[in-house]
Amino acid sequence: MPTLTAADGTELAYHVMGEGEPLLCLPGGPMRASAYFGELGGLSRRRQLVMLDLRGTGDSGIPGDPATYRCDRQVDDVEALRDHFGWDSVDVLAHSASGDLAILYAARYPQRIRTLSLITARARALGVDFTEEHRREVVALRAGESWFEAARDAYEAVWFGSPTDADFDAAAPFFYGRWDAAAQAHAAADVEQTNELAADVYASSGAFDPAVALAAIACLDAPVLVLAGELDSGPRPRVAADIAKLFPHAELAVQPGAGHFPWLDDPVCFTQTVATFLT
What we know:
Layout: E1 3-5, E2 11-17, E3 22-26, E4 48-52, H1 75-85, E5 90-95, H2 98-108, E6 113-119, H3 132-141, H4 148-160, H5 165-171, H6 181-188, H7 190-193, H8 196-202, H9 210-217, E7 224-229, H10 237-244, E8 250-255, H11 262-265, H12 267-278
Parallel strand pairs: 3-4, 3-5, 5-6, 6-7, 7-8
Antiparallel strand pairs: 1-2, 2-4
Helix pairs in contact: 1-2, 2-9, 4-5
């Protein structure tokens, strides 16, 4: 298991899969180990995936200062990985909560971004967040599913109440386009792969300054892909469209029938969309 050392001495692990041009992959969660990426639906057959375990997750070390879990404090971990490989610039893929991390990285190191793929990604770094309205839209979309009645109340508790661990488990089908065996196994691994303490710090006060990030992103020359799932609540496709408009050179893709993990819902569609963008 290869590692590198961050500026503060924390050991960072990364995992390499596939062949071809490198694609630096940042996991979401927040603060979930990169193992949940799997092969990204077969994208590893198109590109060499370099998947970083963020500090305190997966095979990476626990930092001495828990405050360094904050999103903006991890930007230089991404730069340390780029420097470790000696890439002048690199294609970056970020999923979910790591959309914020990738955006802050692009804002601080724009010359290092060759392309940026934001996969069902958050953009709080740019002042965009998901609302109660967005979450409730998805409830209406999934009303015909066989699991709906059992999951609805738990989903309400997750976003609008005081959820228990059982609520998070029961609400999991809402995050997948298909609640099949693969999705169930993927969801079951979430708790053991996530550093909950780090997740609580990730977006804490001071992590984001949207005005500064927006000004920096306005000068970004790199092409950006904003990919949303048709059935995802974060972001809804129309919100993803708003995110795309904040970049000078961005395109929007909405994957039909997909939830928050589009590479599981339709691997062929996902890999084709991302690979076409990257080439």
